[in-house]
Amino acid sequence: MTRVLIIGLGAAVHVGAHLLSAAQSLGAEADLLDVTSAYAAPRWLAQINWRLRGHRPTHLDTFSDQVLRRCAEYQPQVVIVTGIIPPSAAALDALRAQGIRCVNYLTDDPWNRQHHTPWFFAALPHYAHIYSPRTSNLDDLAQAGCSASYLPFAYNPAVHYVEAPPPAVAAQYQCDVLFYGGADADRFPAIEALIRAGFQVHLYGGYWDRSVNTRAAYRGIADAQTLRWAVAGARVTLCLVRRANRDGHVMRTFEAPALGACLLAEDTAEHRDLLGDTVPYFDSTDSLIVQTRKLIDQPATRADYRRRALERITGGGHTYTDRLRAILSDLA
Fold first, then answer.
1. What span, in angstroms and rounded, lies between the C-alpha atoms of 67 and 95?
2. In this predicted structure, what is the pLDDT of residue 1?
3. Phi-psi map region of 46: left, alpha, beta (phi>0 left; psi -120 to 50 alpha)
4. What pLDDT is attached to residue 94?
5. pLDDT at 312
6. Domain of 119: which CATH number?
7. What does DSSP say about strands 234-239 and 201-204: parallel, antiparallel, or unpaired?
8. Range of the domain at 28
9. pLDDT of residue 207
10. Which of 21, 88, 147, 197 could bridge across to 64 with cysteines, CB 3.0–4.6 Å?
11. Do 239 and 104 lie in a common domain?
């Protein structure tokens, strides 16, 4: 039986937690080492390390040593790191020398200028393999000396399922359009266009309250249950990629259909491949408005899209258990 150590964030909405749940569903022995402590520091010190030292975690070396100690105690065969986070290149080399296979499920694009991290670029070639949920950076990873392949995001059936809010609070979740995710600069034009067009928009995620144009639509940071209720209350759930991340799809590509959303997706090749004709697409702010208005005016069409997307995503092959099984099969 493979023993797996996952390094990532342990909160229920993060990939690290989803992979831990997946390992448990496979009957594998698994544990998660939460990376939060690597970044814990007074605000001024964290800002110096982030802004002036290449997005360096304040406790990069200390946390890397913690990884080595945890592996010495736990003796995993496989370490799965989720994204642009420690351990360091030196720690990865030390683990490889012990016969431990270290892979990275690269949740963000390290060539995104917002994530540019010299210490992580130094670590990249020291992984046994990189699994990227975007096809756009596979050539870059190869040129950086990495063994890499495409592995899409997924959904977690223990978290992403249809759940209506209790009747007493249902009204507060009702809206025309829901978007959950961070307030990236390239997402504002779509959201602002929807608001100007008169749609009732609800926004969950970081920083939407910092703009006067979106502040009234801001509903805070959603935990897993709030997200289920928000999707149930929305007529349409919007799926925007992160262009600075060179995304072809995102986590909500799988999560939202599993939550029962009528998903309106940004038109990309990956979305077309993953979702087929089970969702409508848009490729401009004009087509976004047109498609949204059609969906709002046609309840039966929305219900049909909900049903077909739910069936496609939950019909097999798209859980984090499937993704982890693929990783462990590669490493067998």
1. 9
2. 66
3. alpha
4. 98
5. 98
6. 3.40.50.2000
7. unpaired
8. 3-151
9. 95
10. 88
11. no
The three state secondary structure string of the chain is CCEEEEEECCCCCCHHHHHHHHHHHCCCEEEEEEHHHHCCCCHHHHHHHHHHCCCCCCCHHHHHHHHHHHHHHHCCCEEEEECCCCCCHHHHHHHHHCCCEEEEECCCCCCCHHHCCHHHHHHHHHCCEEEECCHHHHHHHHHCCCCEEECCCCECCCCCCCCCCCCCCHHHHCEEEEEECCCCHHHHHHHHHHHHCCCCEEEECCCHHHCCCCHHHECCCCCHHHHHHHHHHEEEEEECCCHHHCCCCCCHHHHHHHCCCCEEEECCHHHHHHHCCCCCEECCHHHHHHHHHHHHHCHHHHHHHHHHHHHHHHCCCCEHHHHHHHHHHHHC
Angle at 243 between CA 200 and CA 22, to 5 degrees: 85
What pLDDT, on the 0 to 100 scale, is given for residue 116? 83
Do 8 and 122 have their domain in common? Answer: yes
Total domains in the fold of the chain: 2
pLDDT digits (tens, 9 = 90+) for 127-184: 999 999 999 999 999 999 999 999 999 999 999 999 999 999 999 999 999 999 999 9
Residues 144 and 95 reside in one and the same domain: yes
Residues of the chain predicted below pLDDT 50: none
Does residue 272 lie in a domain region?
yes
